[in-house]
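Before relying on records like the one below, remember that each one covers exactly one chain. Contacts with other chains, cofactors or solvent are not represented anywhere in the record.
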Amino acid sequence: MGDLIDADGFRANVGIILMLREQVFLGRRAGARGWQFPQGGVRSGERLEEALFRELLEEIGVGKESVELLGQTERWLRYRLPPRYLRRNQQPLCVGQKQRWFLLRLKQPEVTFDFGRTSEPEFDQWRWTDYWEPVREVIYFKRPVYARALSELAPLAFPRGKQPPQPEWWDQYAGGAEPPAQAD
């Protein structure tokens, strides 16, 4: 079962925003300096929620029973890969990702993360961070998608209307050109 790459070259993917109280999980990519949310490809024949819970378990070792699903983005959010990240020897060529983002909350504060559930772990460290911080931490070409996902899901993350204010640096990091919203 391979990854789903649409006719425009975008790989179907789920993004996971995992919350504990008012903070979000951020993982450091194994062998790299970058930080990001858990995410992963949707396999052929797999429903989005199946991909979500498979990726959550594979990447950080957290099972479905440990989280509450609060919601998801209304549409696919897309980003293009910079030319240097394109794998031109793979067919079909993947030019970027289209992601459906899910917001989850841990049911209890005591959870053990396990990054060794696959032969190639995604993360080697983790931390809880302020809600908006991942926009500044993720690799530059993913920042507009992170900003859109966090903004769209903030009312679900903070249902009493007490969203944290966007930081002073917000426009500098999140203000990049956003691809147009596309329905699939």
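The radius of gyration is 16 Å.
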